[in-house]
Amino acid sequence: MGLGEPRHGARLGRRVIAVAVVLGASVTNCIGSTAPATPSLYERGTATLRPIVGRPPRVLILGDSIADQFGSHSLFALRQMGIDAQLTAFWGWGLFTRDQYDMGEPIADPPPATLMYAAADGVDAFDPDVVAVYSNHNYWGATAPRDADGHPIKVGTAAWDEMVEEQLAALMDRLTVHGAVVYLVKPVSEPGESISDNAIWNSYLANRSASGFGIINTGDALAHDDGSYVAQLPDCAGEARDVHLPSSLHLSYYGAGLAGTFTAHALASMTGRAASAGAPAEPSVALIPWTSGYRVVTCDGASFAFGDVGSESGPALGRSRVPDDPVVAATKASSGDRALLLTAGGRVLPLGPVASRGDATGLGGSRRAVGIAPSARDEGYWIATSEGRVQAFGDAVELGDHRGQGQTVVAMAPTPDEHGYWLLTEEGRIVAFGTATHLGDLEGTLPAAPPIALVARPQSDGYWVLDRAGNVYPFGAARDQGSAAHQDMVRLVGSGYVTEPVPAWTEPTTAIAILPTPSGEGYWISLANGAVCHFGDAPPLGALDRAEVNPVMTVLGHEFYEEGSPCGQPPR
User: Fold this and answer.
1) 433-446, pLDDT tens digit by residue?
2) Considering the entire predicted model, what is its pTM?
3) Which residues are paired to 297 by β-bridges?
4) Residue 104 DSSP class
5) 64-101 b/e with 16+ CB inside 10 Å = b?
6) How many CA atoms lie within 13 A of 237 on its CB side?
7) How far apart are CA 13 and CA 65, in angstroms?
8) Tell me, what's the pLDDT at 254?
9) Sequence-ordered strand ranges (E) for 240-395
10) How far apart (Å, rounded) are the C-alpha atoms in residues 202 and 218?
């Protein structure tokens, strides 16, 4: 779509202030050999960051719908790294509109709901140290600003060059009035085009020496080496995933997460903070208890805490994760806020101050690690593999396994006393070892959706089996408190919202984990799309599916659940 046409349709205004504190996550961009090379995070401008003493750095992100998308994800990571952050974004926003510039002159007092107004308002109210601006796509041909003679200004003309120079200078004046350093965020490429084809961006660059802005290279993170459009990038498992909505410059949830992480790392680095945390992007794979809340773990090793989450635990992975070796399971260590993450290849990754005691060996082909259980003194653990092998590490003792039975193990669950474990097979069979007690299973009555997880009641007198559709099967003293299967969801259809039943077995209803409450009278169920459903005495504490990430963006990227359903999460 050319610069003379509207790019985003109706303008949808929103302002978000980062208030959700999510701690200790770390994300890598999961970029493989066929994907773009990792670019430099940013290029400094001529201004110097003012001293920041006795308080966290403050970052303001301004811009259009793309800023709204990746900026919402960036807030996650920035808050994790101890940075105060605010996002002000407006769909359809641009710097060059008739209510901001007309008849050859900047409008001295532009109205609300314009980028120029938001720049002054945001700086006065928030007093940021760094401002990142993304406004690279919108030039509304039918209502374009006019030159001094009253003619609509066309891209590439002398009047265009004059307008860009004056508007950029006016924007910089508003943003730097209290001493903030300004960075412009490099655009994402558009279908069939390269970043270098973006006329607005090129005009910014032509005025860089006079304006002195720095550059955040987010666009390069989602483009080929020559800056051209990339539709897909590898995910944690090495599978191609859309980073844009089909044939669009708008980002998918995945693309917004990658761009959000990259932007947050750039902003953290320039403010002197370690770029140690990431934004949500990948599917959820585990749910682990944490203080009085829980952590949602995604397949890239990032973890996001909800509820009374205590102190920061530190990252699990940084940028050292082996490509195509996703995290598949996690377990809480027996004491303190510590956990062990397990990859499909058998690597053990510590989260918090707990040591790795070794990795599973002899894996390859169809064999993969599927579960991990801690021993009682945090000095060891067991790892289960898909063929039924269980390996003991540290002070964990050999208790037995399920090899040679012709069944595939899909999950492992520790006993509450951490002196035993259960193995769950895809046929629904449960096998007990050590202090674990067999209380029944699904063998012979296998449901339509395959079993995926098993968790014990804290009182050791029962357990629940979860299948991929979200159905729960209780055994022993465990009670059925409800199911995540067939929850209604809300979808954006045209200009309205409609409620539709979720087909069992399809995304985003894929269940991945179940976590009991301390009383054993409730549980949370985590879904691959980041939703967390609550049942029994389990309170809603938050999730990644909607309330914690830009809801407009999430509608564009995938469906989400009704706030009133057990999978709905109230805003935080």
Assistant:
1) 999 999 999 998 87
2) 0.80
3) 286, 303
4) T
5) bbbbbbbbbbbbbbbbbbbbbbbbbbbbbbbbbbeebb
6) 12
7) 9
8) 85
9) 240-242, 284-290, 293-298, 303-306, 327-332, 339-343, 348-351, 369-374, 380-385, 390-394
10) 16
